């Protein structure tokens, strides 16, 4: 009977999956600026006009549709002179000649653009080899652990090594979850999906909590996200941190009674269309999206989700979980040793994501974890010779070497699964508010901690502090959901304002540009309470890594938007890049917001500020 049930589940899962990609075809995304009842018909009509095959909508996005055409021998996948693209724009220009065909005419009026899908690679946020050479510490104080094992009937042999759950060496330096478990809060009713390199759903530590219906493999376009490559262990390890079953195998997950799904996207190149579909995959069933990946952490790249990817994030928070919003959790990145900063990553500096950095088993900031003003909180990962113990690929295989911010993000996702188990009605913004309100400041001797008008303190290395599971749960029980989101946007255009040279200067000299926010503007926007602040900056510069940008609020609170990146030699400047800060949460926004732009090295390399836009988001 169990075999039959699994067979029926497998069949149902297969029937509900996206269409498999054909490697012998080019794929294109048609974009309609607005959804309307005939969008699907219009997309099919355009496909017929172009002589290409209609494939269907892009995931849950109702304004993007895939079409495909056979690959010809004389056309490469990256050829800019693509006949399908050229035919599309030719049809757009001649649409007036189609007036006799009402459907086709309205279709060509409605469609906005076509985008040829090109494969790209997303990067896992695993460890940086060789950065940590210290010997592991020896644990002591078994009485702390024994109480948890006895009271909760934990028999998992690896539980004593899970110091992030119960830290015997440094009591209190853990996620503070045991008392939450004692309340019966173990993740029931919550589902976390791991967007990664697969998930070993046959592992004895994960099988009972695996959610097949919420899973898919977008690399090989098969129903189940089975790890296939030699290094496809990253996602399984993350899944174990969240939902490893309480049994006699390895350790336990933070939310050990939650469901865990796997969406495989990191085991090969992927198109924007498939990534967008992955970000919204089964978003009525999958609650939390745990993402330990992003652009390369080399201190040189500057990449963001745009177009349909940006729309996928907005669609997730607007329509996911029945309108309460998908909870996106992203790791800050491991590029700190390369001078990288998570504000140069458009995934981690998005207002729609909870960006999580790492601390080690002594609450110290490890040398790999990136800092930025978009970082909301931190939680535990590797450092000082210690690593995260978790599930690995194999029937009953474990590992004691999981590390990097890759391990911090799923720890946070597991904590959030416990929160949603108590309050499934919370919105994506509610979760961010709870993080801000309950995070615990640590390492208070660090000079970057700054007192804010809200009464809280903030640090670009630690955000608002470390996650405290018990504090989050207690606050969530009584939390009143915030009102709808609104925003105020203001811009200033400059006449190529030269950025003064500060290289070698004892005191840096900034180019200053201010935008004034009035009480009347705030009232007109209905902005009752400030949350995220973004500054979209347009700078031309001969060496991008020389630029430092701060944003100063009316209360003289400064957010470090862009830090110097010595490896970034790009001559492309910072063109219409959106920086984000959570440092001004709950601050009164009335007054002058001042952008401070510095040029800190190589005086022969110059640049100008062209324009910038301030956007205030809030309740």
The CATH class name of the largest domain reads Alpha Beta
- Measured as a percent range, the helix fraction is 10-25%
N/C terminus separation: 52 Å
Radius of gyration over all CA atoms, rounded = 25 Å
Active site: 196 (charge relay system), 234 (charge relay system), 406 (charge relay system)
Protein name: P/Homo B domain-containing protein
Family: Belongs to the peptidase S8 family. Furin subfamily.
GO molecular function: serine-type endopeptidase activity
Characterise this structure.
The active site is at residues 196, 234, 406. It is found in: Membrane. It is a single chain. The protein is α/β, with parallel strands linked by helices and 619 residues long. The protein folds into three domains: 2-116, no CATH class; 143-478, Rossmann fold; 486-618, Jelly Rolls. 22% of the residues lie in helices and 24% in strands. The chain contains 13 helices and 25 strands. It has helices at residues 2-15, 39-50, 83-93, 102-110, 142-152, 178-182, 234-243, 272-279, 308-319, 405-422, 428-438, 469-478, 519-525, and strands at residues 25-31, 53-58, 61-70, 113-116, 123-124, 191-196, 216-217, 259-264, 288-291, 293-294, 327-331, 353-359, 377-380, 388-391, 398-402, 450-451, 457-458, 486-498, 511-517, 530-541, 547-552, 558-562, 574-581, 591-599, 607-618. The strands form seven sheets. The protein has a seven-stranded parallel sheet, sandwiched between helices. A hairpin with a 6-residue loop joins β14 and β15. α7 runs parallel beside α10 (405-422), α10 packs parallel to α12 and α11 crosses α12. The radius of gyration is 25 Å and the shape is globular. The N and C termini lie far apart (52 Å). The model is unreliable at 1-6 and 130-140 (pLDDT under 50).
């Amino acid at each position: 009977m169990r075999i039959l049930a699994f067979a029926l589940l497998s069949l149902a899962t297969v029937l509900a999956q996206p269409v498999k990609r054909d490697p012998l075809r080019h794929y294109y995304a048609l974009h309609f600026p607005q959804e309307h009842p005939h969008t699907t018909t219009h997309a099919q009509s355009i496909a017929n006009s172009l002589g290409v095959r209609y494939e269907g909508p892009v995931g849950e996005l109702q304004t993007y549709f895939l079409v495909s055409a056979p690959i010809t021998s004389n056309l490469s996948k990256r050829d800019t002179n693509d006949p399908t693209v050229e035919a599309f724009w030719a049809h757009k220009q001649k649409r007036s000649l189609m007036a006799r065909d009402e459907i086709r005419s309205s279709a060509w009026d409605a469609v906005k653009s076509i985008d040829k899908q090109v494969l790209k690679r997303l990067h896992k946020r695993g460890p940086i080899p060789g950065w940590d050479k210290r010997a592991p510490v020896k644990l002591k104080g078994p009485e702390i652990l024994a109480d948890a094992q006895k009271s909760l009937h934990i028999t998992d042999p690896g539980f004593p090594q899970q110091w992030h759950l119960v830290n015997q060496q440094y009591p209190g330096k853990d996620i503070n979850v045991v008392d939450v478990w004692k309340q019966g809060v173990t993740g029931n009713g919550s589902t976390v999906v791991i967007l990664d390199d697969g998930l070993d759903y046959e592992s004895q530590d994960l099988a009972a909590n695996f959610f097949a219906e919420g899973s898919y493999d977008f690399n090989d376009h098969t129903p189940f996200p089975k790890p296939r490559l030699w290094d496809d262990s990253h996602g399984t390890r993350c899944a174990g941190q969240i939902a490893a079953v309480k049994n006699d195998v390895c350790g336990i997950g933070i939310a050990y009674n939650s469901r865990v799904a796997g969406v495989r996207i990191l085991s090969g190149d992927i198109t924007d269309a498939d990534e967008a579909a992955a970000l919204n995959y089964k978003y009525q069933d999958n609650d939390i999206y745990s993402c330990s990946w992003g652009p390369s952490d080399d201190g040189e790249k500057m990449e963001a989700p745009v177009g349909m990817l940006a729309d996928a994030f907005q669609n997730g928070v607007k329509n996911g979980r029945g309108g309460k919003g998908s909870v996106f959790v992203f790791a800050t990145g491991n590029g700190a040793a390369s001078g990288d900063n998570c504000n140069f990553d458009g995934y981690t500096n998005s207002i729609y994501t909870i960006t999580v950095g790492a601390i080690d088993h002594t609450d110290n900031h490890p040398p790999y974890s990136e800092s930025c003003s978009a970082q909301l909180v931190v939680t535990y990962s590797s450092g000082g010779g210690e690593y995260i113990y978790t599930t690995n690929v194999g029937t009953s295989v474990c590992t004691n070497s999981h590390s990097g911010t890759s391990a911090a993000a799923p720890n946070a996702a597991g904590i959030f699964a416990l929160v949603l188990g108590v309050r499934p009605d919370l919105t994506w913004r509610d979760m961010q508010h709870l993080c801000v309100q309950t995070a615990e400041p640590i390492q208070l001797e660090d000079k970057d901690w700054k007192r804010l008008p809200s009464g809280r303190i903030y640090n670009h290395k630690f955000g608002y502090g470390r996650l405290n599971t018990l504090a989050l749960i207690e606050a969530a029980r009584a939390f009143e959901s915030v009102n709808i989101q609104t925003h105020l946007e203001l811009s200033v255009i400059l006449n190529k304002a030269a950025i003064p040279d500060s290289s070698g200067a004892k005191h840096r000299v900034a180019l200053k540009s201010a935008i004034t926010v009035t009480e009347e503007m705030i009232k007109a926007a209905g902005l009752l309470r400030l949350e995220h602040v973004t500054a979209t900056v347009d700078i031309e510069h001969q060496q991008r890594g020389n630029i430092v940008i701060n944003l100063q609020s009316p209360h003289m609170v400064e957010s470090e938007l862009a830090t110097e990146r010595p490896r970034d030699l790009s001559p492309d400047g910072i063109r219409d890049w959106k920086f984000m800060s959570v440092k001004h949460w709950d601050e009164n926004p009335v007054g002058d917001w001042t952008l401070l732009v510095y040029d800190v090295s190589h005086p022969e390399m110059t640049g100008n500020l062209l324009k910038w836009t301030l956007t205030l988001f809030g309740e």
